[in-house]
Design goal:
about 400 residues, mainly alpha, Growth Hormone, Chain: A
Length: about 400
Amino acid sequence: MTPPDPDRHGWGLVSALAAAQLVSWGSLTYSFSLLVIPMEAELGWGRTQLNGALSLGLLAAGLLAYAVGAAIDRGGGRWVMSLGSALGAALLAGWAMVDSLSIFYVIWIGLGAAIAASLYEPVFAVVTQLFPASFRTKITAITLVAGFASTLFMPLTQMLIGAYGWRHALLLLAMCMAVVCLPIHVFALPKNSRHQRSELVSRQESRAMVRRAAGTRAFWGLLICFTAYYGTFNAMIFHMVPMLTERGFSPATMIGAIAVIGPAQVAGRVALLVRRPRSQAVGGWVIALFTLAVGVLALGGQSLVALYVFAVLFGAANGIMTILRGTAVPDLLWREGYGAINGALSMPAMAAKAAAPFAAALIWEMGQSYDAVLWTVIGGGVVAMAGFRLAVSRSA
């Protein structure tokens, strides 16, 4: 029997996890594109070299995704996310002191482990485990807050780089991780109560659930969808600043447009929270909205209107897609073994995330233009739509 959801005691924890996600996303991911140009100027490393380190880190995150999800299924959410926060803070500080490209690559392998253990995939697994009766509402609430990460941290990081330099900016981001995220994961995440222990699964059960899922079209459709979507999304997000710089937009205009993405993400999630549709009803048109957004940017040239239309559509689509990522497994498959199944789906998606920034840099280098990158991203959006169509055609 599924235990009643302890809503009366759960929202404090959800609020704390949302704050940790806000800081984690802002520090570990959104800062990178702002650091590329000052690192190029000081260290003389090329854009492909810098994005190669990022790609290696995201590949490490993908390789660890299943192990992280399975560990959370067995009740390890508290120590997994605490370790992720501690590792992230330490390695951001190490990044601030780097002078060697090889050490930079090692640091990003470690940051990949921190990403695997501290961002949306692990927190979705923890919330689904702790609140089986209302995980969808609580996942949405967490993403509402975390949706402001780009709005808050991109201007903040740019301001810190301008005022103190990129190295001191990284030290301050490391401090944010250590002061906010680590205490929340250590002290706010609970040990497993008796009814929560009944929800846990063994290593053998996790593997059995993944094998069962792999026998369905829904699993393979979601795998294609998430792999294509997150690869194309990462190609956009980690090249956003140099891409808009190439188009002639000023730093103030770029930051203003990027700051719109966060509120647009939140607006999309609020709309989803009000309507509360199941994943089957929203997946296809949300990916179409993302593809349309990139098309507007590709065709818009130096138009400010096109830039801001892109930011609104891009943000709204990704905001809803994040919730779809958290709820698609229980909606289209089942909730048991969520962490392991979600981890199995995340592995190729994270590999695509890893390859995308590096591949986009190579495409840019071949033509010294981001136009080809944008049309490649549009093609990836079409593939993601086809994958989701396959998933809903034979959901479990």
